Each structure stands twice: as structure tokens, then as C-alpha cells.
Amino acid sequence: MASPMTFFLNLLFLLSTALLVAVQARSRSDLCGISIHASDYPDVGSFVTTEGTFHVPQTRYRTDDPPTLINHGVALCCGDDCSARLAAFITTWEWDTPGTISLPGFHFYPYFMVHMSHSVGMHLNTSDTVRIKLEILNQTKAQITYTKYLTPTVNETLKLTIDAVRGDNGAPILNVTTLFNDDYESRMIYDVRSPKYTRQTPTFCGDSAWWFASDNFGLDESHTILRGGFRFPSQFPPLLIGKHRLQTEQKKWFPHNFPLGGATRHWDMLRDYSHDGKGEHVACKVRGFPDTGMTLLYSQHPWED
Question: Which segment of the chain is annotated as a signal peptide (predicted)?
């Protein structure tokens, strides 16, 4: 049994770590959200499963602008900066018609392009509640499950099994099998997005896990919305994320076995609009702790014209 002094020193260390994380504000230009990193937890190994529950947000169309794509979901990444990742998300469009058009999608970045589940029967709209579960089965195989809650006892499920293999020409390809409500839906094959990746060996890894919202989280240039050669600030509606879960390769669960909040990194989306005289703009902010069961991502001025 640890001595009172050892217990006190451990408690002091944990409190100082939590305070340090809270004080150190972090920002990125491509996303807002929260992340947790295996490097902050010695001896836990890598992460293999991450989950979160999302509400499809209400959006507002601005007549002078093209529609904005807002992605909200989860990701398992290689490295602390999430430079390579498998992300599973819901993409929401802002249109001039009532409601919201949303689709589930995934992105194995940087090797493959974004892929949306256009043909399946899962239709998402404003105020729908969707749970996203992302699992790494091994270095070349992963599974994504989207669960749309219809009633307390009825739901729809969309399950994607993703295999990263090599094709007949030796270049990496993705084999993606789709099941809707456990019935076979389709099998698709996707090529790498660029010839520069044909000699690489894409693998899934869980050095860090992310719950995020973004309008350009690793998207291709064709998805980037520009105004006068510059990105304009997206109108981020309030986004709620609940029931965060994370599992390590040693079958340890956050937050059941370990707390998330103490070492969770928070990320605000900070954009620089010096070209228009407005300077830096916080497009999306983060509030809340996953240990409480809820995280809020929001803009300070979500409906600003």
C-alpha cells in the first residue's frame, strides 16, 4: 500500500498536470475539438477504439455564399499532430431549403480521398442523434459503425469494414464493404489519391484519438470554399458531443478505467483574416469535459453575416 506521502505527491502531480492542460490554450486552423494522446499515458499502449454521440446541427444558409461543409466525428491518428488518420464523421451541408442534408463519410488521410455513403438508406437530418464507433482491428483493417437512434428501442446501423491492401498493380487500395441494418449493401474499391502514394504502405494506428468539428479537416482542394482567394469563416452552429469512449490495445477503457478530462487537449479553431483587416478570428471554440459526458463545440457568433 502506498504511503500517505506518496499518495499526496501523486495527487499533487495529477492536479498540476490538469492545471497545466487547462492553462495551455491550443489552436489549429483546420478543426476544433478535443484529443487524447497515448504519449500522455505511459504504458497504456495505443488506442484501438473511439466512440462519440453527435447531434446533427441546425444550419443557416447565407444567400451570398456557397454552402459550407461541416464535418463532425471521431478519428484515430498516427502521431500527436494527427497528420495521418482514419476519420469517421457526418458531413452537414448548409442549403437554402429547410432542414439539413447530412451524410456519413470517412477519410483515410493522406492516402485516399474523402468518401461519402451516398447510396445507403441512412438519411440524416436536423436533430438526429448518431453514434459513431471507429475500431482498428489490425494495422490494415478497420471498422466504422454509425448508429442512428430512431426511438429508445429502435435504431438504424451502417457498418463499414475497411481493408487496406495492395491491388494487382502493387499500389495500395481500399476494399470497403458496407452493411445497412446488417444486410449486405455494397463492396467498393478505392485507389490512392495520388501516384506519390503508390509505393507507400498505409497502416492504421492509434497514437492519438480526436473528437472534432471541421470545415476542411484534410479535405481536398476541390472541397475548399474560397472568397476572393481566401477562406471565409464558416458559420459553425452549436455541436454537442456526448458519451465519449476510448479503448486501448490493452482493453483499458476511458473514462471507465482512466479519466479523460485530466489529460484531454482542447483545440479552438483560429483563422487569420489579416487580408480583410479583421485579423485573427476564432471560428469554433470548445467547452466542457468528456468526463462529464458532454462537450460543446460552438462559434462565438454562429449566425454573423
Answer: 1-25
Residue 304 maps to a domain? no
Give the separation between CA 259 and CA 133, rounded to whole angstroms. Answer: 19
Reported as a single tens digit per residue, the pLDDT across 93-129 is 766 555 557 889 999 999 998 888 766 678 888 788 9
**Cα gap 94→101, rounded to integer Å:** 8
pTM: 0.84
Measured CA to CA, the distance from residue 278 to residue 160 in angstroms comes to: 43
Mark out the alpha helices in 119-262 (DSSP H runs): none
Summarised one tens digit per residue, pLDDT across range 16-67 is 333 333 435 588 888 899 999 999 988 888 999 999 999 888 766 655 655 6
Q: Which residues on neighbouring strands pair with residue 15, listed in sequence order?
A: none
Mean pLDDT for 146-162 is 92
Range of the domain at 210: 28-298
Residue 98 lies in a domain: yes
Q: What's the domain count of the chain? A: 1
Q: Indicate whether 3 belongs to any domain.
A: no
15 located within any domain? no
